[in-house]
Amino acid sequence: xxxxxxxxxxxxxxxxxxxxxxxxxxxxGHTAPGFIASFGQCLKMMKQVWQCPSxxxxxxxxxxxxxxxxxxxxxxxxxxxxxxxxxxxFGERYARILERHGAKVTLLExxxxxxxxxxxxxxxxxxxxxKLMSFTHVDTSxxxxxxxxxxxxxxxxxGVMTILDGVCSVAGENIRQEEWGIDVVLxxxxxxxxxxxxxxxxxxxxxxxQAWKERKTLVxxxxxxxxxxxxxxxxxxxxxxxxxxxxxxNLVKALEKGLENIINEGLEARFDRHxxxxxxxxxxxxxxxxxxxxxxxxxxxxxxxxxxLPETISLPDFMQAMGSAKVAIAGGLLPEIKTRYFRVGHMxxxxxEDLRLCVEGIAFALNECGMNAxxxxxxxTAIAE
Length: 385
Ligand code: PMP
Known about the structure:
The chain is α/β, with parallel strands linked by helices. The protein folds into 2 domains: 6-11 and 266-384, Alpha-Beta Complex (Aspartate Aminotransferase, domain 1); 17-265, Type I PLP-dependent aspartate aminotransferase-like (Major domain) (Aspartate Aminotransferase, domain 2). The chain has helices at residues 17-23, 33-49, 64-75, 89-100, 118-127, 148-157, 177-180, 206-213, 226-237, 249-265, 267-287, 315-322, 352-368, 375-384; strands at residues 6-7, 56-61, 81-86, 104-109, 132-136, 138-139, 144-145, 161-165, 184-188, 199-204, 304-305, 327-328, 330-331, 342-345. Helix 7 (177-180) links the parallel strand 8 and strand 9. Helix 2 (33-49) crosses helix 10 (249-265). The chain binds 4'-deoxy-4'-aminopyridoxal-5'-phosphate. Residues 11, 63-65, 68, 90, 136, 139-140, 165, 167-168, 188 line the site of 4'-deoxy-4'-aminopyridoxal-5'-phosphate. The site of 4'-deoxy-4'-aminopyridoxal-5'-phosphate has 13 residues, from helix 3.
C-alpha cells in the first residue's frame, strides 16, 4: 500500500504528470532552440493568465520572496512613501522589504480575519501622497482575500503604483491585471500555477516600467535589477537567446506545461472550480463544528482555508492524529495564534476526491482528539449544496 500522502499544504502543491515529466527531461541548455521556444511561449502565456496583454512578464530563478523584492527594489528610491496593506504575515514581510530598499512605509493592518476595506484605502490615500502601495491578495497565514479590483481602481484614481502579492492567488483567484490597473502582479511557481518551487514570476505594467526608467538612483539589488533582466525577457520573447544569469531550464520547461494546463482548462472554468471547491470545503468545516479565521464568506480565499481548532484540542495532538490520514496539511503561521488553527491548500489541480480525503482525515483526527465528527456526511452534504 502506498504511504504517499496527498500534499494539501498551501504550497508547494501537487503537480500534474506532464509538469513533472518536463522537469525530468534531460537538462536543456539555455541556448537550445527548443528551450528558447519554451521560454518565449511561457512569457506569452503569462500575459494571458495574468490577463495583462500589454504587460512585461519576468521569469526569474528564485522563490516568491524574490518576486516581492524585485518589485520593491526596482520601484522604490530612498525616501519614497509606500503604503502597505496587511492582512497577515506576508503583508508584514512586504513592509520590511520596502523599508530595506529605502521606502518610508506606512503599514495599515487589518484585525486578524478581516480585510482592509476600500473605504479604509480611500481614506489612507486621501490623507497622504504615496508613490506606491502593496497588498497581499490572499494572505496565506490567514486565508483572507482582499478586493483586488476596488483597490486597483482606487490606486489609479489617486495616481499610486500598485503591487499585488499574488503568491497565493494567481491562477486560482480571478485577477484582471490590465482592466483593474494593477502595476505589478507577482507570484511563485509552487502554488496555483502548479509547478515545483523555484521560479519567481511577475507581470509589470507599462506605467511601472516607465517609472523604473525614470529612476535617479541605481537599483540596490544587483540580481533583481530589471536593467539586467529586461533585455533577457525581450530576447526570449522574440525567439532569441540571451544571458545574464542561467535560467532554471527544467523549471521553465515545467512552467510551459503548467501554463498550458491552466489555459486548456480555461481561466473562467478554473476560477469557478476553485470557488466551488473552496466553498464546499468551508461548508464541510462548518458542519464539523469548526470556525474559520476569515470573518466572512466575502473575505474568504478559495485557494486555501484556515479552520480554527476547538479550545479543547491542542494543535500538536491534532497534527499527530492527522499523521495517519492520507493527506498532509499545515499548522498555523500567524505568530500570535499559530497553535490555534491549521491550514489546508485547495488550489491548482486539487479536486473533489482530494478534498473528500482531506475532510475525512480532519474528521478522523478530531475524533481521535475526543470530538464526535462525521467527515463522510459533512463532505457529502457540503459538495451537494
Ligand atoms: N506571499 C505570499 C502570499 C505567500 O503565500 C508566500 C509563500 N507562502 C510568499 C509571499 C513568499 O513566497 P516564497 O515562500 O516562495 O518565498
